[in-house]
Structure formats: structure tokens, C-alpha cells
């Protein structure tokens, strides 16, 4: 029996997962070429130099970013001086391809592959081309993998409201899987955020031609995430493989840059395309924080501005008009306390729906910070008032229109009647004038209620904080 030919490949790579990925792909290459591929692994440039001095290789794969980077040029120079040219394939973790190509500009490289968008099928075909005997001619692996596309839906994760995200309503990513093979297969898709999550894996069984969408949000390590108070970049790893005869075959492994936002940043919306917008404005209810110390203390001051010396919420009075007046008096007491005791300066700045990639996000002061800074814009003021009104056992509303937000409240519990206030007038006008302005603003906004966020014809969103609490939108703190 004729023995199989042998090919020797050196993998210069210090990460064990990539050592495994490349080794597995080389076994596919061996199967396609009907040969034996002997694999050696070097975890550093210095170790690789020892390998090429003592043994010949038919191909070398190199990650150019290793701890002993100063030896990279020595290794490349030695490879270039070999009598028999050794093909070099780069598998790089650099994000900028130009940086990598510049690193190798003085050396012959057969192909470059990027870890952030690694394509195993292309890598296999390249190694087959480089290792195939000349007499065999072109060789390729038949298409035998399912078609999988991974779509990252959210590139920024708001740490203050991560408890509102789930696979069902706000997944981080989704896999679109189609079985293009002529037999049933099982596909395993996985994702994890380095340092901040556990690995999430799902296995799906697909018949030939069958498709399925799998949404994922890796389970976060809450202690790690809770410690984040500023923007923090992270790496999302995605991996897909399929099972055949009990053995895993890699389809792809890709890395994606994401970030965790500061705790006071809200994502108002996720824009998938011009026809698909996820309205997340309801999450502003998490900024309504009635139980923090500064809010409790400010409500005590507000009671001093009430004729009775206390705030009692929805209690007493008989007629609807008397009840509305009673509640309005308590809102006025809150207004006066913020104006005279807290000395809040209201900055009449519009809501800034800042767009970043496909996300609309904005920094919103938590009520305790607005009190500490003694200033707020319209949305800061809306969540501040809402926190005080909820603490006083009444039902606040936040109304959002293009570029602006103001506050409202239910005139009595379950009355389904509302009144409104322009919060930015707290420091400069009387309560009566701010009340009149708020009512006028709602009258203008009312025809637009129910329209989708960012409707070019105008929109208005009324957020009932009590109803949102029932949906699980709890305070950030």
C-alpha cells in the first residue's frame, strides 16, 4: 500500500484557542489532500526560530503580535534566507489591516487573515493551494458547511438598565442559520463577552434547506458589570460549528468590538434600518429613582412648602375638582422646594438624540446628581420631578416630543386625568406660569401620541411611570 505524503506546518501563535482552531483546519486540509499534515506549535517568535533552524516546513502561519515582538524581524529574515521558499500566512489580531501589511511589507506573504472576521473556509482553501502537490493540480474542499451569518444588534450596553435586556426583547446578537448541505445537521452557535459574561451556547437541528434564527444575550457576570461607572470597551466573541459523526467542525470564529456605557447613559432607540426602529424611550423610567437619599430629603423640604406641612398623595377630598386641586398643591410644594431650597438652575437645552452607529444615546443626569450639581436640562428635570412625585405616592408621567421633555401626573389615582408642568421654568417663573405652559405643550403634543419615535411628521410619547414599574422597569439604583 502506498504511504501518504507528509506536509509539515508550523503555527506561530500564543493563544491556545487559535492554536486549536488552526490545527483543526489543517486536519481538514489533510483530508482534502489525502495526506498527513504534521503540526508544530510555537508560542513565541524565539521558539519559532528554533523550529525552523532544526527542521524544514512546508508552510508557516504567523500571528505578528506576540510578547517577544522584537524577535519578529529576526524570524522573518531567517525565513526569507531559506534556500527553499517557505509560504507564510498571517493570522493577525490587529484591527487595522494597513498596520499589519506595513509590518510585513519587506517580506513575501501569501495571504492575510484577520481574527476579528476570520473565515475558515477561505483559510482552508489557501492552505490546500499552498500544500497541494504540483502534479495534483488545483484541489478544493467541497462546500460542506451550513451558511451562517452573525448580526450584532447592539454595540453599546447601558450598564444602568442591563436588567431590562433579554434574548426575547433586546438580544445582543442573532445568528441566521441555513443548512445548505444534503443531510440533516446539528449546529452549535456560541457567544461570550471577554471578562464580563459566561459563554452562551445554543444547538439547533436543521434538515436540508431549513433555516432558523437564534438570538443570544450572554449571561453577564453582575459583579463585574456593576463595577463599571465609565465607558469600558470589551470584546464579544462569536463562534459557530456543526456536528458530524460526533465531531465538531468549525465554521467560523469572529471577534467584535462592543462597549459598556456609563450608568447614566440611555439608549433612546436602536435603528436597524430605515424601516425598523426599536423604541427604548420607556427605559427612562429607570432614571426615576424615588428611594435615593437626596430625593427623600428634598421631599421633606417640599412638605414645608405645603399649607398642611405634609405631602399625603392621593388622600382626602370628595369631588374630582377638589382632588385635582389637592394634588396640584402638592406638586406646587415640590416646585417651590426645588426653586428655593435646592436652587436648581434649569438649562433650557433640547434633548440631544445623539446618533452613534445605529444607536441613539444620551447622557441623562440621575436625580441625585441634578440636586448635587443644582442644574438640569429638560430630561434631567423630568426624571427629577418624576422621582419626587412618585416618592410622594402620586403617579408621574414623562412626555417626550422632538427635542424636549416635560412632566405630567395623574390628577387622582386611576382617574385617567392628567395635568402638566414645564420643568425648565422652575428657577425663572411662577408655578402657575409653568403649569400653564406645560398644559399648552401637551395640547400641541396630543395629536402626535401613538406615532413611532422619530416619525418625520412628528411624534409624542407619554410614559406612565406606574405602568412601566408594573412591566419591570425598576430604578437604576
| Structure annotation, total helices | 12
Mean pLDDT: 87
Strand content: 25-35%
Strand adjacency order, main sheet = 2-1-3-4-5
Q: What gross morphology would you assign? A: elongated
Low-confidence spans: 136-143
Number of domains: 3
Biggest β-sheet description: 5 strands, parallel
Separation, N- and C-terminal Cα atoms: 74 Å
Q: Compute the number of strand runs.
A: 23
Helix content range: 25-40%
Using only C-alpha atoms, the radius of gyration works out to 31 Å
Derived structural class: alpha/beta
Word description of this protein:
This protein is an alpha/beta fold. It folds into 3 domains: 6-136, Rossmann fold, CATH 3.40.50.2300; 147-261, Immunoglobulin-like, CATH 2.60.40.10; 265-470, no CATH class. It contains 12 helices and 23 strands. The protein has a 5-stranded parallel sheet with strand order 2-1-3-4-5, sandwiched between helices. A 5-stranded mixed sheet has the order 7-13-12-9-10. Strands 15-14-18-17 form a 4-stranded antiparallel sheet, with no helix packed on it. It starts with 5 loop residues before the first strand and ends in a 7-residue tail after the last helix.
Features:
477 residues, five-stranded parallel β-sheet, 29% strand, Immunoglobulin-like, elongated, Rossmann fold, alpha/beta
Give the structure's gist in a few sentences.
With 477 residues, the chain is α/β, with parallel strands linked by helices. It has 3 domains: 6-136, Response regulator (Rossmann fold, 3-Layer(aba) Sandwich), CATH 3.40.50.2300; 147-261, Sandwich (Immunoglobulin-like), CATH 2.60.40; 265-470, no CATH class. It contains 12 helices and 23 strands.
